[in-house]
Amino acid sequence: MSGDPNIGFVIAAYALGVMIVAGMILTILLDYKSLKKALVRLPQRRAQGQD
Amino acid sequence: MLNYANPTNFLRLASVLVPSFATLTAVLLGAGLYLAWFVAPPDYQQGETVKIMYLHVPAAWLAMFIYMVMTSAALGTLVWRHPLADAAQKAAANLGAGFTFLCLVTGSLWGKPMWGTWWVWDARLTSVLVLFLIYLGIIALWQTIEDPGRAARASAILTLVGVVNIPIIKFSVDWWNTLHQPASVFRLGGPAIAGSMLWPLIIMAVAFTFLFLTLHLMAVRNEILRRRLRRLTILAASGETVETGGAFPEPVQ
Question: Angle at which helices B85-115 and B195-237 pack, to 10 degrees?
């Protein structure tokens, strides 16, 4: 396999594939985390505003 | 179906389906990659470069499949006014752009050693690039129109206009002379690929489909939470009681 002259193209394609898919997963997970945090903070901010 | 128009029911369903689909995706991806890298033989002409196929073809399949999901969601927004249709459409757009980009770059990395060029303006490549630009246009519409109801309607209309590109992509290799090869899996005479290469390809395509379903469920869940946050922020600003438990999304106006 490593003797193939074009193996660099194959590795580059899979490396990019991992980066793109990981990027999509991370974006969604980070978005979820920040939304949950903002939802938890909302009543606290409201309570602070009433004090 | 209508039962899951209620976001609370949808969130409950997503909490069960996301871990199950994620596990299934991991198992299928593991099996598919093992078969692609260690079992499937090299092509007699392309050598090991054919391994790019196991990434490129599922990405291309998803690029079109996601657009059809978005088209159904656009109809759901404009015709049936399903309350979660626009959330499903918005959530799918980023994923569609991601998989189309993956299809384009892996195609380019496959084309350079096989065709001797990174890019050629043939019908298949150009129509997939147009699909990628349509995805970016839909994402831009969602980002630029502040009112969610108007953004949903505008992006639904753009999605329905853009669906004309899907048959052009599919049949471009039959209608025009292209450098890209014709269909070799979904064709009238049956697949033109040997079983030892076809099975890893099918498993990778199913794995990618479950990857999309998992990510889409997660992204729709995010959209529901974003609407809940928006609604509660407006309520809080107007001085009403904030209850974070059971808010419903804003209906399509």
Answer: 140
Residue B16: its H or E element? helix B7-34
**B184 with B192: CB under 8 angstroms?**
yes
Q: Single out the residue of B125, B137, B103 nearest to residue B180, CA to CA.
A: B125
Chain B residue with CA closest to A4: the answer is: B48
Cβ count near B245 (within 10 Å): 7
Q: What is the DSSP string of B200-250?
A: HHHHHHHHHHHHHHHHHHHHHHHHHHHHHHHHHHHHHHTTPPP--SS--PP
pLDDT, chain B, mean: 89
Cβ of A42 and B232 within 8 Å?
A: yes
Among B43, B52, B66, B100, the residue to mutate for chain A (most A Cβ within 10 A): B52
Query: Does the beta carbon of A38 lie under 8 angstroms from any beta carbon of chain B?
Result: yes
pLDDT tens per residue, range B149-192: 899 999 999 999 999 999 999 999 888 888 887 777 766 677 77
DSSP symbol at B252: P
Using DSSP, state whether B40 is helix, strand or coil: coil
User: Around Cβ B91, how many Cβ atoms within 10 Å?
Assistant: 24
pLDDT digits (tens, 9 = 90+) for B186-241: 666 777 788 888 999 999 999 999 999 999 999 999 999 999 998 888 888 777 65
Break chain A into its structural domains and give their ranges.
21-45
Please state, in angstroms and rounded to a whole number, the distance separating the CA atoms of residues B172 and B187. Answer: 14
Spacing of C-alpha B194 from chain mean position: 27
Phi, psi of B47 (to 5 degrees): 65, -140
Predicted TM-score of the model (pTM)? 0.89
The partner residue sitting opposite B55, judged by closest CB among A4, A14, A32, is A14
